[in-house]
Structure formats: structure tokens, C-alpha cells
Amino acid sequence: MIRQLLSDPNVRFAYIATKIGVFAVAALVTWPLARLVGPKAWIGLGIFGAVLGVMTVVVLIAGSTGGARAAELPESPSEIEDDDGLDPGLVVEIPIEDSLDLHSFPPRDIPEVVDSFLEAAHEKGLTEVRLIHGRGIGVQRERVQSLLARHRLVSGFHDAPPDRGGWGATVAYLKKTKT
Description:
CATH architecture of the largest domain: 2-Layer Sandwich
CATH topology of the largest domain: Ribosomal Protein S8, Chain: A, domain 1
Number of domains: 2
Order of helices and strands: HHHEHEHEE
Number of strands: 4
């Protein structure tokens, strides 16, 4: 594994530079000690150098595996496959109930999801629905309520009562289905 790492010129340079730096620091630190203690201090220098050498190799291996992963990433979006093997164009049906939690949807999809939900809820005959957008700083709440204010099927809306989500959810009233 180390041979494979050292075959990369950048990794080889980093390894050599780190080794030289480690031994230079070790020599500078232990030189005065060797002058005071005598030849036994050089044994400490050898052990210190070996430990730092092992640490250098570990750091290089850890750093290069991240680089190898990055190099293996696909170059074009068409090469990217979903981990679950799902088709990105797959339409998923959500059971229509009187509430919809929007946390599981990407923010860019919220307007389309809310519109589709309101259409389906209206077709099902529901007259009141609750959209759970979360509290946060209020951005999603404003987007949802802005959409509700101009939706043709909505007759009114307000923040949910505290026991149904408070300002983390919005209750919308749908127009009655004409029979």
C-alpha cells in the first residue's frame, strides 16, 4: 500500500518533505540533550524518529484515501446512480390525508408538492388540511402561506393552533367541491 502511495509524485514529495522536517526537528530537539546525557540520547532520537515516521505514514495514508475517493467520482451527472437504484423521474404517490409534513421534501420542490397536495385533497373532498413546514426562521412558512394566498382552491388559511403545531404548521381551508 505504501508503494502505491509513493508512486504518486505529490504524495512522494509530501512524504520526503515531512520526513526531512521530522528528522530536522528531532535532531534540533535532541542535540542539546545528547551533549548533556551522552550517546544514550541518540537512542531516544532513533525511537522519536521512528514514531514520527510511523505517524507520517499514517497521515499520508489517511489523506491519500480521501484523494483517491475524490478521483473516483464520476465526471458527468449521467454517470451518477442513485444509491437506492431509484429512477429520479419516478413518480411517488403520497397517501392523501388531512396533513402533509414538508420536512422530507427539498425546498425547491415545496411549491409543486403543495400544489399537488392541495389538488389531491380537494379531489378527495377534504375541506381543511394542515401543512407542516416547521418553525425555523420562518422562510418555509412564508413560502407556503404565499402559495396558499394565491391558490385557486384555498378559501383561507392561518397558523395552526398550538396543539396542532403552532406557527410550525399552517391550516388551510379548501373550497367545497361542486357536485
